[in-house]
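## Example pair
The file below holds two records. Each record gives the amino-acid sequence first, followed by its structure token line.
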Amino acid sequence: MDCTYCHRTVAKAASAHIPAVELCASCHRAVGSPDSEDLQKLRMYSGIYEDEQTSQVVVDPEMASPINWRRVHRMPDHVRFVHSAHINYLTNNPSAIGNVPDYLDISGEEKVPASQVCSTCHGDVANMEKVYQVEPLKMGQCVNCHRKNGGPTDCAACHH
């Protein structure tokens, strides 16, 4: 699945956007069984449950709650990481993309879709059973990448 399907603002905004529960549920309904554990969890987060007395499906928005996503990358509060700037640079400069999964052939390409550059920092998420941090995303790594690719190296570019 294309990363930008769920993270819709990644090429336009500072953050990658976390999708609404309903968007998650729409895909899980399409690919999984109706009793799958993931779909049951999504129903709970959406405030959808089966009334034990009547066996009727109840939709109660008051019972809905946001998913408590497990954060994979945590940047310090004083660091500003603007996804769109990095995505837009890498889509136009595929030779700078790192961690390219084997199934993506981007050699010789002049421009690639945003979803193909995510692997640079996030690894091959499509084939991870559970998402984990591939790159440490420490200051030295960022500075080296900026130097290598002509990005800004003044402190104010990332720190505020």
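Second record, same layout:
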Amino acid sequence: MSGKTVEIDISKNSHYNNVKVTPNPSPDFGDGKPLVGYKSFTHRPYGGYTIKNIICPNTYGFRFNGNTSATSTVEVFVWNDRSKESNPLLLRLNNGVSPAYYSTVTGSNWKGVESIDPSGLIKLLERTNCRINGIHLLDINQTTNSASDIYNCPSCYSGSSTITRYEKHMSQYEYVRYYYASSSGNFGNVRNSDQTIALPPGIVPHLYVYWSIGTNATPLILSYPVEGKYQWYIRSCGDTKWNIEGTLTGQNPGLYNNPGKIQDFIQKNVTPNIIINLQQERTNSYHPKDNTLEFNVEVTENPEHSGYYEYKHSMVGEGTFKVRSVEHGRKTLDGIKPEKIISSISGFYWGDNTKDDNRLLLVHIGARTEYYYKKNPYSSNWDIDSSIYQENLLVRLDQENCVRNKAHVADISKVSEYYRCYACSGQSINMVSSDEDTDKYKRVTHKVDNGGSIGRIFDNDISQSGIKIPDKIVSLIVFHYPKVDNKALLIHLSNSLFKRKHKDSDEWVSAEGDKLDGDDSSNILPLLKKINGDSEGLSGGDIAGYSTAGVMTPLATAEAVNYTLDTGWSIIRRAIAIFNAAI
């Protein structure tokens, strides 16, 4: 160490004696959430100097009770107002490991703060702001049913305010007005319960708030004086951000006598106006961007067994809302802006991955009259398509998937030459067919050329479920048995094998446990026979696993055991007994 030391003057907000001071207009307590209404100044020695002590010359009797030997920087938190920048409220000493916090009650005597989480630090900072600067919190959720009432600052519990209720227009215009006046200082942050909703540009002595009334009563309009002129702010239900209403600027709420105009603003904004992000995954509860209301996302495969998934956003409980904008991640989906009140909005995806923009194929608006949006292929816009409805939804999703992702529909009922994807009619799907194992089963390869891939599988127009198709798969191999029926029973897809759950099922399950070695294993024919329910060469247990219904009764299981144990039974008798027991 050089031995050169310097004293940190926490009343300074610019460079001084070998100390660089850096302002931060948006500090936080390590949780990434900016402190509304506060800023900080970080003091850092340079030129080989280390911190000897912390001082504040303009504070009488200042005393810092702490050790600075390992401290590299001192961060000073102050109220975000020029007239208050020289009044430190909280100190953060950084040593490269874990920060240490110091607070004060009087401004002169500073002591260390025991282990405390970010929310506790915020409360400590606000309480100190009340005591040092006389700037109190205003919680507009504190109301009264009386003509007038008193309540204390929710931060320091000593600064009192008067609440006056005006309900002259309540019965006719469905709103009530509250007037808040501080009797011991001024207001800084304005809150609605725990949510900071406004930060006046400077301190204010009083404030007016207009509430809607009814079951969903909520504050929607507020006004306060700024340099002698009243500013008005409006929000929609649940919004955390308030917007200036310029048509009312300068009007004194106490003298303003146009209740009809106030009512118009109330009615326009009492319905939530939400920013929906369709990338939100399945959840029972989330808060849309800049809003405190609770929404959920319900996920269903729609249509059933199609491989397409609907992510439906709606309010928790019952409720309707308007849509301010629709986003997908950080992108705004241009053109999607329903003009009317809706009950839900859904994104339809190819697969269950909501992160890929191109997998979002359609957007559904749930309202009294339902409708869909699809992406314009020639621009970034999304356009309403009134020709889409539930009955043709699968076809339209397939068509969009062809256009957006070049992902086509393979038909496993086809066995020779080539065919065209039914959804787009433009993409050829070529086939190579061969008879295997002395003409006992057929092996058919389906391949998509020209940069396309396979997006979905059906069997003669019937959707097949249970087959998860990886991205960019251009071919698949289908095994048909018996050859005379051309019944597809087994599919080899990339590195995966799938078999029908039973021969008449449209549900497929993994065949990875059937000890097959690739797609040309000598075990393929026995497996095909097993799926088909053939008795030749199969044990009673094999047959029991593939009955006509896919499930065996206890009696059928017993008969299957008799099949193997009683050699005196004829084969015909054994088969009839098992069949009758199964049904």
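Notes on the second record: The longest strand covers residues 428-436. DSSP finds eight helices and 39 strands in the chain.
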